[in-house]
Amino acid sequence: MKPALLLYCQHSVGIGHLMRSLAIAEALSRTFRVVFLNGGVFPPGVTAPRHMEIIDLPPLGLEDRQLVSRGGEQDVERVKAFRREMILGTYDRVRPAVVLVELFPFGRKKFAYELLPLLKRARRAPAPRPRVWCSVRDILVAARPDQQHHDDRARWLCDRYFDGVLVHADPLLAEFSESFRPSRPMGVPVHYTGFVTRSEATVPAPARGDHILVSAGGGLAGGPLLRAAVAAHALLPSDRRPPMRVVAGPFLPESDWEALQAAVQSNAAIELVRSVPDLGAEMRRAAVSVSQCGYNTAMDILGARVPALVVPYAEQREDEQTNRARRLAALGLMRVLEPVALTPQALAVEIAATLPFRPTASTLALDGGPKTAAIVARDYEEVSLHNDPREGRQRVA
Q1: DSSP letter assigned to residue 214
Q2: What is the DSSP letter of 59?
Q3: CATH class of 212-354
Q4: Cα separations (Å) of 127 from 34, 106, 115, 383, 389?
């Protein structure tokens, strides 16, 4: 029987954290019985990997940096209490050999109320206690007013409750220490896994077409880019105005969706769709991709090798996408329009300039899913062997 692994993932705005965690869970499921704690709304059209148990917590999200219920319940404190009990109850039922927490303590501070009880229960479990890992993306937000305090607290929590950190990145693009700078170095090991990409396409990718693909991840914060792209289409030179396919995203607010429908109603050259099952396959079809620069979107761009123009999401001190976009652009892998410069006119100029652009070949490691699974499995096997009662040994503290 496979050992159990409990994976916690909370997506609050976009769907990038969820998609990356699902890809990691799929790789882990070859060695472990994965139980997936899902803390956000599961997007329509997204399917979980096979052989995995999904526990849907009452969904919470963020609006104006405050927790809000996404499931209809108005009393957020009641939802929080119920989620905490569900998480601890699942832990007690599953008795995991490994606990994998996405992003916390480097982010998700508002979810500490439910994560710290989970981590304390795992740490205080009788031998053999579970191994506890943090799963974190390439670049962290590093523009908080209290950044030094945040980093120092994250380091302290890591050393107290975790056995290691899995950074889903290639250090050739970004070193973890560039966006995480505690006053003292962490005591737990940090492993680079390479970037996490989806292992298989769910939509066939025919020969590259001649259209512009516009997307904004889950869509919750994509309205400004999508509106600008629709308006920019009419500003492209008439002799070089390819058709446009706009993927709005499953979480685009309904008011924005209706406004987009009205804007394209009389333009047969623009196709508007709510969502697609595989954005990477859509990019392989397109002549040009216009998007934001979240982790998964960036990986889809690299996998598709599509000429790409990105406009990073950069609201409310969010500098992660801008940092990633600039680094990838410096390697010749995409082009960037800074978000402060986003207008239909500027976007039209940049789209026209991207049509002849050809990205360089990427040498970045894109095998993060299998590499993550191999690191976690090897650690589990080594600790299990060290704790083998036939050897008369005790488990590592």
Answers
A1: E
A2: P
A3: alpha beta
A4: 21, 27, 21, 11, 11
Shortest CA distance to 334 belongs to which of 342, 324, 343, 325?
A: 325
Distances (CA, A) of 88 to 121, 303, 370: 8, 38, 28
Secondary element (H or E) of residue 273: strand 270-273
For 111-157, write each residue's pLDDT tens digit. 999 999 999 999 999 999 999 999 999 999 888 889 999 999 999 99
pLDDT tens-place string over residues 185-213: 999 999 999 999 975 444 455 678 999 99
Q: Which of 295, 293, 296, 383 is nearest to 334 (CA)?
A: 293
- Tally the residues of the chain: 397
Matching CATH number, 4-197+366-391, of 1.10.10.10, 3.30.470.20, 3.40.50.2000, 3.40.50.2300: 3.40.50.2000
**What DSSP designation does 109 have?**
G
